[in-house]
Specification:
Structural class: alpha/beta
Mean pLDDT: 88
Strand content: 15-25%
Radius of gyration: 28 Å
Number of helices: 14
Shape: elongated
Largest sheet: 7 strands, mixed
Distance between the termini: 75 Å
Strand order of the largest sheet: 9-8-10-11-12-13-14
Low-confidence stretches: 13-43
Length: 345
């Protein structure tokens, strides 16, 4: 009523000044009133949106989300103020990637962040427009994700976990703690393009060390039972577990089986050692997630993914679980303990 009265007074004044009263109606929208021009000049900056495609669950990837968020915070990004992170979780099911990626694209995210070869290939298939920051992709050139590490091209860049003969080094670690080792089982996922190359590495290393290999192909959690049955039947003496989110997601189940069957393991992920595995050796996935924030920042500031070189790891981390070693009756050589970055007592 007060505003209507003010408008009526304005109409009378404008009429006296020779201005048609009809023009005043343009100043008023039904149910709302225009803000002053000064308010328009002070509109807040755009809130940027990050799509985070997780391979597992929020709880199981908390150790990776934390460093990523810390990296963003260090660069001045505050969630809810100038950036929003839209999380989507595959729960270890690669077949769900397409739907989750479609949801992120529909939300008009400014960039997508994800880890691992299968998730990265799924995003590459879904969009050539939304920038993608990949993390821990084993061989981004060999799997066709980018054209080269120096100039990736397209809409994808980020961090690779690629290192020469990494699987061979893991096998050598097993031989150090179990010198009489003659047969190993290898958990790998044929649906993961990088795992195929890793299998070639481990076969070559095993042949050189005169160790036979029992490959255990696992594409889904349901296939783990068949792999366990093969181990019970074939009786390998140790396990190697490749880098794949199926194994990360099911780590408790796998390491409980290994403990029950007294099998030492060397793993791609530290999380499997924390779940009871013997050792892990590989790049720091936490540090790679922290570094991913710098790529996001560069994209937000106008850089093109095609022009940002893919980063490779320069430091590798060895983690040993001494409690598991004692339970298996294994003596960890002092020289290996000295090299360990972390020892779980």
């Amino acid at each position: 009523e007060v505003i209507d009265a003010l408008l009526a007074g304005a109409r009378r004044a404008l009429k006296d000044w020779g201005v048609a009263a009809a023009h005043v109606a343009e100043f008023r929208a039904p149910g709302a009133y225009e803000l002053p021009l000064a308010a328009h000049a002070q509109q807040p900056a755009k809130v940027l949106r990050i799509g985070f495609l997780g391979n597992s669950t929020a709880a199981l990837e908390a150790n990776l989300i934390g460093p990523f968020r810390d990296g963003l915070s260090a660069l001045g990004y505050v969630e809810g103020r100038n950036v929003v992170i839209e999380y989507r979780w595959a729960e270890g099911k690669y077949e769900s990637f397409a739907g989750l990626i479609a949801e992120l694209i529909a939300l008009k995210v400014d960039v997508i962040v994800t880890a691992g070869t299968p998730a990265t290939l799924a995003v590459k298939k879904a969009t050539t427009r939304v920038p993608l920051i990949m993390i821990a992709v084993g061989d981004p050139v060999g799997t066709g994700i980018v054209a080269s590490l120096a100039r990736p091209g397209g809409n994808i860049t980020g961090l690779s976990s690629m290192a020469p003969d990494l699987e061979g080094k893991r096998l050598e670690l097993l031989r150090e703690v179990a010198p009489g080792l003659s047969r190993i089982a290898v958990f790998w996922n044929p649906a993961n393009a990088f795992n195929a190359g890793a299998m070639k590495q481990v076969r070559a290393a095993a042949e050189a060390l005169r160790i036979s290999v029992l490959p255990l192909a696992v594409r889904t959690a349901e296939e783990l039972d068949g792999a366990f049955a093969a181990i019970v039947k074939e009786r390998p003496e140790a396990l190697i577990v490749f880098a794949d989110r199926i194994f990360l997601h099911n780590r408790m189940r796998m390491m409980e089986f290994a403990a029950k069957n007294r099998l030492p393991s060397v793993n791609a992920y530290q999380e499997l050692v924390e779940a009871g595995g013997l050792m892990s050796f590989g790049p720091s996935y936490e540090e790679m997630h922290r570094r991913a924030a710098t790529y996001v920042d560069k994209i937000f500031k106008g850089a093109r993914p095609a022009d940002l070189p893919v980063e490779q790891p320069t430091r590798f981390k060895l983690v040993i679980n001494l409690k598991t070693a004692r339970a298996l009756g294994l003596d960890i050589p002092p020289t290996l303990l000295v090299l360990a970055d972390e020892v779980i007592e």
